[in-house]
Design goal:
Layout (H helix, E strand, L loop, with lengths): L1 E4 L6 H10 L7 E4 L11 H9 L1 H8 L8 H5 L13 E5 L5 H9 L4 E3 L8 H18 L1
Parallel strand pairs: 1-2, 2-3, 3-4
Helix pairs in contact: 2-3
Length: 140
């Protein structure tokens, strides 16, 4: 299983392709509060515009939790043409784009929505996240 959070989600197809090339196929992909990989979207900026629409403008109005260099959003993203090659699931903790959880549902992926759950912090938060990921694996 490969799991990616946030901005790492669009990189999953290429990571999966590298694993297949090494004769280590992937059993499944888990995306957590992430943009979805999408053929034809060459940069994270393209993905944000295509997947978030108006939500992107709202999120951009708020100060970012962590600054990234501008090149981060405009760098070329690798894409594997035959992705997904294994089941995919999406975990929405409420910290990421809600539009992407809807897109994952439209793709027929199982979505575990924890956006209404009380905020989790510290070790209990990590344990709850691990439990959510295991539940999502069971849904694949």
């Amino acid at each position: 299983m490969l799991a990616a959070w946030g901005a790492a989600g669009p990189l999953l197809p290429q990571i999966g392709a590298a694993r297949r090339a090494a004769h280590r196929p992937v059993a499944g992909y888990l995306l957590v509060d992430s943009l979805l990989p999408q053929p034809g979207s060459r940069t994270r900026e393209d993905l944000r515009a295509a997947q978030l629409g108006d939500e992107a403008a709202e999120r951009d109005a708020a100060p970012p939790a962590r600054e990234s260099p501008p090149e981060f959003y405009t760098e070329q993203l690798p894409m594997a043409a035959d992705w997904p090659d294994a089941p995919c699931g999406y975990l929405n903790t409420g910290a990421g784009p809600a539009a992407c959880a809807r897109l994952a549902r439209m793709r027929g992926w199982p979505v575990l929505d924890r956006s209404e759950a009380a905020p989790r912090t510290g070790g209990a938060g990590a344990a709850a996240l691990a439990d959510d990921l295991l539940e999502l694996v069971g849904m694949l």
